[in-house]
Amino acid sequence: MAKRKTVWEDCDILVVGGGMAGTGAAYEARYWGRDMKIICAEKANIDRSGAVAQGLYAINCYMGMQWDENQPEDHVRYARNDLMGLVREDLAFDMARHVDSAVHKFEEWGLPIMRNEESGRYQREGKWQIMIHGESYKPIVAEAARKSADKIYNRIMITHLLMDEGRENRVGGAVGFNCRTGDYHVFRAKAVIVGAGGASHIFKPRSVGEGMGRTWYAPWSSGSAYALPIEVGAKMTQMENRIVLTRFKDGYGPVGAYFLHLKTYTQNTYGEEYESKWYEHTKAMVGEYIDHTPTPTCLRNHAFIEEVKAGRGPIHMVTMEAFQDPHLEEIGWENFLGMTVGQAVVWASQNIDPKYTNPELTTSEPYVMGSHATCSGAWVSGPEDISPPEYFWGYNRMLTVDGLFGAGDTVGGTAHKFSSGSFTEGRIAAKAAVKYILDMGNEKIQVSNKQCEDLKEIIYKPLENYTVGRNEITSGTVSPSYLLPIQGLQRLEKIMDEYCGGISVNYMTNGNLLKRCIELLGILQEDLEHIGAEDLHQLMRAWELKHRTITSECVAQHTLFREETRWPGYYYRGDHMKLDDDNWHCLTVSRRDPETGEWTMEKAPLYHIVD
Ligand SMILES: Cc1cc2nc3c(=O)[nH]c(=O)nc-3n(C[C@H](O)[C@H](O)[C@H](O)COP(=O)(O)OP(=O)(O)OC[C@H]3O[C@@H](n4cnc5c(N)ncnc54)[C@H](O)[C@@H]3O)c2cc1C
Q1: Is residue 27 within 6 Å of ligand 1 at its C-beta?
Q2: Is any atom of ligand 1 closer than 6 Å to the C-beta of 371?
Q3: What DSSP line would sit under 250-318, residue for residue?
Q4: Which spans in 312-417 are helix H?
Q5: Which residues of the chain have pLDDT under 50?
Q6: pTM greater than 0.90 (yes/no)
Q7: What pLDDT, on the 0 to 100 scale, is given for residue 47?
Q8: Distance from Cα 203 to the centre of ligand 1, integer Å
Q9: Is residue 316 within 8 Å of residue 269, measured between CB atoms?
Q10: Which of 280, 305, 311, 598 gives a 20 to 30 Å CA spacing to 16?
């Protein structure tokens, strides 16, 4: 181990993950922290990393305040409605009031935004979405980050946060390794901003076998955004609020542009409209929420799932009408080619031409994230001017660990940020992090060599497990003394799928299943001490799996705690099949004790700041 080179870096701000939130953070940190040393450590390469790697066809969060199209309050109402009443309205408002300026930056930096020829305004896809030629969206924001940061370290997987030994509950940086060279990297930092994306592959995906790796959310989103803070005792919120997406079958192609712009619609296998059939049934579960406009995403999923369970699947998207118009046909294809090329390839390989065949839709496996139509993530402080006391502890977007900030998928309670809102939140977090550092004055962070050396030992252990254990292999790849990352991943996905409400149980779980889930995850965690990594790539897979497993534990704990079915269509608590506003119109908050691994759960009050 001693042979592995250690690369030391002392800086003011460390940004973990250079996705949408991370690039926004790096950019804004430089604006406020002119003389500060700003470093970004990214697992892949920021030019094509994160959920926007392939590009996007729409920016899903733009108010249009310059044309008085929407106001931030409208967006809070929208997100609150879609999340069945439960969002952090202070955070949502704060993001919404700043998001337009981020989008204007994107355009200034060269992102082509479509214009409505008549009005001259940005071309709307829906009330909140604007259409872009976005294949190069990610390289464009990456360039801004590259020009702002002192250094971008690509190919560094951050595995652990460092803690300040001079003051309790304060972050001191992070460590990780270079997935190509194997070097050990120590970043000592006064403030850390985590923008490490959401979590896919914690539930068994629909695409297995030859389709493995094809998931809706980026397959490399491995829950680091949650595991890193959880391991140092930061509080998390709404982790039960996993998301299930209705998507085109097998390629997970998005449906937003189809519904909103192409005006396509769904029907069951008999060509019937089905959503209205489930109205009374859904009303009995969730009450008046079913009467809200627009219908919350989870409730539309619910009708879909019930219709398929009733034997009237598959559900089709009716494209054959819209695709007769050559302009709409072009948009339909371009939508995938600029964002989810795999869907176009799947259709080509399955002889599906949407002009002549209505393609199938399906509901995905659940994902954990904080920026889409869902709001799992860290419990953070809100902005000084609007947050109630329970939501404010000094610095905007700071977690419950001092000096540790979050943005994008990392931050909980604030749904519907999407790409633009995540970038915006990165900017907000960076501005606050600069202030935090300025307020520290001459105070120094203390991180001992011992802390770093101990972590080094832990990080590379899977390579050692493999080197030793492979001598015991008698045939194939099965060793009596280690498990491989893929084996551990499949075990994790099976546990979460069967016990925590995945696809194979129609998203159903209950208290007893969840208790067993937590036990099995505990056993998996023990076994992960014996994970073996054949090479550096597998070492990355090993750490991704460990991060996914801790994230999963948190999801299971939250799901057990909330004794209601708040979001039918995302998951069901079979022992509490109704929404229960009397007892659960609140946010859930967890903390894992870093010393004992014990979880504590609490309810946090929900404040409605906007009428
Ligand atoms: C298929 C799909 C379609 C979407 N469609 C739209 C759309 O049309 N419009 C829209 O506005 N939004 C869309 N989104 C949502 C948008 O992409 C996300 O909201 C946004 O990317 C979240 O930003 P983030 O920075 O939190 O995560 P990401 O952008 O995913 O960035 C996370 C970064 O962290 C890095 N990372 C992860 N773990 C580590 C680690 N341990 N160490 C170092 N680095 C790490 C990753 O490599 C990545 O670069 C879509 C997303 C997907 C997947």
Answers
A1: no
A2: yes
A3: TT----HHHHHTS--EEE-TTS---GGGGHHHHHHHHGGGGGSSSPPHHHHHHHHHHHHHTT----EEE
A4: 326-337, 341-349
A5: none
A6: yes
A7: 97
A8: 18
A9: yes
A10: 598
